[in-house]
Structure formats: structure tokens, C-alpha cells
Amino acid sequence: MDNVKYKCVTNGFTKAGCLVDNPDSEKKETVYNGEILNCEGDYIVKNGVLLCHKDSIIGKYHFRKVN
């Protein structure tokens, strides 16, 4: 499977999300303009925190797929 990446195309944002390896825990992450993040399954992830679904309103607004 390809390692899909997404680039933040807005001024960035801060969001709380659950941890990939511990869904019962939550952590805040800040995403900056131009930052490129990995997609694990259908979710855009930063530092082990699930930020959003790639097809959600947040995903479509803040991110563009990187070729």
C-alpha cells in the first residue's frame, strides 16, 4: 500500500484527537501551513494523533493530497 501524504494548505489549526495506539487517550496537536502529514488508513495523523478523516469537512478544507 502506498504511503499517502497530505499537505496543510490553510493557515493551520490546533485540534485534539485520540491517540492511534490508545483511543481512550486524547492529545492536542498544532498543524502549520505547508506541513506534510501521513495518512494511516482513512485518517490524517500527526505524532500518533488522529486529526481527522481524510474525507471529512476538516480534511477537505485544510489538506490536499500530495503526489
Task: Give an overview of the whole structure.
The chain has 67 residues and is mostly beta strands. It is built from 1 helix and 7 strands. The chain has one helix at residues 57-62; strands at residues 5-8, 13-18, 26-31, 36-40, 43-46, 49-53, 63-66. The two termini are 14 Å apart. The mean pLDDT is 94.
Short description:
By secondary structure, the chain is mostly beta strands.
Secondary structure blueprint with pairings:
Elements: E1 5-8, E2 13-18, E3 26-31, E4 36-40, E5 43-46, E6 49-53, H1 57-62, E7 63-66
Antiparallel strand pairs: 1-4, 1-7, 2-3, 4-5, 5-6
Keywords for this entry:
globular; 1 helix; about 50% strand; about 70 residues; mainly beta; 5-stranded antiparallel beta sheet; two-stranded antiparallel sheet
Structural class category = mainly beta
Task: Name the average pLDDT.
Answer: 94
Number of strands: 7
Estimated helix fraction: under 10%
Low-confidence stretches: none
Order of helix and strand elements from N to C terminus: EEEEEEHE
Strand content: over 45%
What is the CA-based Rg, rounded? 11 Å
Lateral arrangement of strands in the main beta sheet: 6-5-4-1-7
C-alpha end-to-end distance: 14 Å
